[in-house]
Amino acid sequence: MATINVRKETSKLYIDFRYKGVRCREQTRMRDTVQNRRLLKRLVNRIDAEITLNTFDYSDAFPDSKKATLFTDSNSSTKSIITFKDFAHTWLKEMRPTWRVSYFKTVSYLLEAKLLKAFGTEDVENISRADVLQYRSDLCLGNENNNSRLSARYVNRIISIMLSILEEASSRFNFPNHCSDISPLRTRKMRPDPFTIDEVESIINACPTEFKDYFIVRFFSGLRTGELHGLRWKNLCLKSRSINVRESIVDGVLGKTKSTYSDRFVAMSDQVHDSLMRIFKNTENSEYVFSRNGKPLTQSYITQCVWYPMLKQLNIPRRRPYTSRHTAASIWLASGENPEWIARQLGHKSSEVLFNYYSNYIPNVTRSDGEQANKFLNKIEVNL
């Protein structure tokens, strides 16, 4: 295990590690600061990983070192073999700090359940473009080993992970990457299917009393599920009628929101404000606005115990609870609210998303497309 140390006489950092039974110490010109230690830590992690994988090249890491000559012959005489499985696990470990917990779990699952079963024992540098394309075809069409066909969108997620791993491996181990120009499969743009006003009324009226205010806030605030369940009283200002969205719960872990644009202040409508006031007056001893036994609500509980049973009872087409967010967006658009305001309410980067994503569903709310234009045209007198 490589370590970072400092020479007392110079206050400069050096790296201390063992390679092929030899203790190696490489001096740097970097002073002992937090930033410099952070930079060296990346190099140290890479050295540890490459030594583990038997791919470490001393002269590549320290080209000016006199000690590099001790390992030149052994490095050049044989070519190391790295399996896709070994490198994929290293890549996953290195990428984990840059991802949200939920995304890390998704990538880990797809890697173990799909990619490693197909390519785990293959040498990473020998995986060809034809191999990747054939595997993609098998996922889409199914074969004698895998009868289930996957959607193009899901296949693209799996292959994008594969391509990322191959790209990093080719860069690190200096072999040609023939898969870099593989394009994703064409997919149909997913369109939301928001609830109508009548359906919203039916859901709120039919839900258990303890969840009425929860669904009012859900339908009329536009918050994402994680933002709603992670909402804490300290982030509410009932007096100024605003919700300070800064946190989100995913898989039971409270963390940051989806992106920097997701951090926002959401204005409360009268219905949302009144519901939050009722909850506040009857709240348990919990820091979370929506809690059960003092703990935040979970997506699985709402979905399986409340949401889907209620839709089935009302004979309303099955849709995810997340559709409540689409419903809020379409209601605001149909009401004539400023698109820029709506984008800020939802935590979107711009209003362009609204028109690309929601515009086709405004009639589902109002059933009156063209009414305003029709009223204007009727004022025009035409002599026939």
Can you walk through the features of this model?
It is a single chain. With 384 residues, the chain is mainly alpha-helical. The chain folds into three domains: 3-77, no CATH class; 84-173, DNA polymerase, domain 1 (Orthogonal Bundle), CATH 1.10.150; 197-366, Orthogonal Bundle (hpI Integrase, Chain A). 48% of the residues lie in helices and 11% in strands. The chain has 17 helices and ten strands. It has helices at residues 34-52, 58-61, 72-77, 84-95, 101-119, 129-141, 152-173, 197-206, 212-221, 225-229, 270-281, 299-314, 323-334, 339-346, 352-357, 363-366, 371-377, and strands at residues 3-6, 12-19, 22-31, 236-237, 242-245, 247-250, 253-256, 264-267, 291-292, 295-296. The strands form four sheets. The chain has a three-stranded antiparallel beta sheet with strand order 1-2-3, with helices on one face. A three-stranded antiparallel beta sheet has the order 4-5-8. Mean pLDDT is 86; it is low at 74-79.
Percentage of residues assigned to helices: 40-55%
- Tally of alpha and pi helices: 17
Give the number of DSSP strands. 10
Ranges with pLDDT <50 over ≥5 residues? 74-79
> Can you identify the CATH class of the largest domain?
Mainly Alpha
Computed CA radius of gyration, to the nearest angstrom:
28 Å
Please describe the structure with a list of short key phrases separated by commas or semicolons.
about 375 residues; mainly alpha; DNA polymerase, domain 1; hpI Integrase, Chain A; 3 domains; three-stranded antiparallel sheet; 10 strands; globular
Short summary of the structure?
Helices cover 48% and strands 11% of the residues. With 384 residues, the chain is mainly α. Strands 1-2-3 form a three-stranded antiparallel β-sheet, covered by helices on one side. The chain has a three-stranded antiparallel β-sheet with strand order 4-5-8. Strands 6-7 form a two-stranded antiparallel ribbon.
